[in-house]
Amino acid sequence: MTINKQACEKLKAAAAKANDEFDPNMFVMTRDILALLNELEAAEKRIAEQREYYESVIADGSMRIASLDARTLTVKLPPRVDRSNVPFTAHTWNCCLDAVKKCLTAAGIQVIEGEGQ
Fold first, then answer.
1. pLDDT by residue (tens digit) across 93-116?
2. 86: how many CB neighbours lie within 10 A of its CB?
3. Is this model's pTM higher than 0.85 or not?
4. Which residue segment(s) compose the domain that 16 sits in?
């Protein structure tokens, strides 16, 4: 819905004339004022409805985030490799496991190593 441009222009012109000439008997059509007020009320109602909708969307999103944060996530890593069998490969593998564990722990994810639980 757009504001009635013609009624708005009439009101602006009448207000400017009254201001310039100090006309205490400013003549403004009642229907123009009522039309503008009706449009203003409709716009305010639409804004209130949209505000209510978006507030409920934000609340739902907040509840969803809270439920996801409340979940427990556990990752089971593969076992570490014994260095006596394959020294270089074992070292690389174990370093990778350490890096993955460090990143997961920093993200708040519980890590189980090897054959645990």
1. 889 999 998 998 888 788 877 654
2. 12
3. no
4. 5-70
